[in-house]
Specification:
mainly alpha; elongated; transmembrane helix; copper ion transmembrane transporter activity; iron ion transmembrane transporter activity; membrane
Length: 181
């Protein structure tokens, strides 16, 4: 019984640490990414292209879901701590593993959406750069020309932050899964 209580204490401490690290790191990355996307849309009136806007926004939305899943791991640590005195009240290992697997799936879906959004953004920027003639900066663009703007490149930063958020979430989920398994 004392070995089970000790294992519950170690697992609870690990879930609290990893859950806190995952929550704050993902929250900050996702929040910055959302702020960058919102800023670039509000300043320019529209994002670079509709598909990039929606895919990046989907990645950010899934990022916030992952943030709240990490918060759930901190709450799960509290349940594990309270079960140290009575291990029969601890959540079953299969339930904990299922939660972690769901967290991994959420992060992989977020990564997929954000990577496709990033590829669309970069592809559009390359197309704009290749289609713009080499004109002096002060002369300005020709009629009908769509030069690469700083706000277009700003979207790449939003995607990169969302990717980092999902990567960190995936790392913390895999570490918790490793510790439980």
């Amino acid at each position: 019984l004392s070995q089970v209580a000790k294992r519950l204490e170690e697992t609870a401490r690990h879930f609290k640490t990893m859950g806190s690290l995952g929550f704050w790191s993902q929250f900050l990355c996702t929040l910055v990414s959302a702020a960058i996307l919102a800023f670039s849309i509000f300043v320019s009136g529209t994002a670079t292209a509709t598909v990039t806007k929606y895919l990046t926004a989907a990645g950010i939305a899934v990022g916030f879901i992952s943030v709240f899943r990490s918060f759930g791991y901190m709450r799960l640590s509290g349940r594990l701590e309270s079960a140290m005195s009575d291990p029969s009240k601890a959540p079953p290992r299969t339930e904990v593993i299922d939660k972690l697997k769901t967290g991994i799936i959420v992060n992989v879906l977020g990564l997929a959406s954000t990577v496709v959004g990033l590829q669309a953004t970069v592809g559009l920027l390359v197309a704009k750069a290749l289609n713009s003639p080499a004109t002096p900066f002060l002369q300005g663009p020709y009629a009908g020309q769509s030069p690469v703007l700083a706000l277009d490149v700003f979207l790449v930063q939003a995607c990169a932050n969302a990717l980092l958020s999902h990567f960190l979430g995936l790392v913390f989920n895999l570490e918790l899964l490793r510790s439980v398994s």
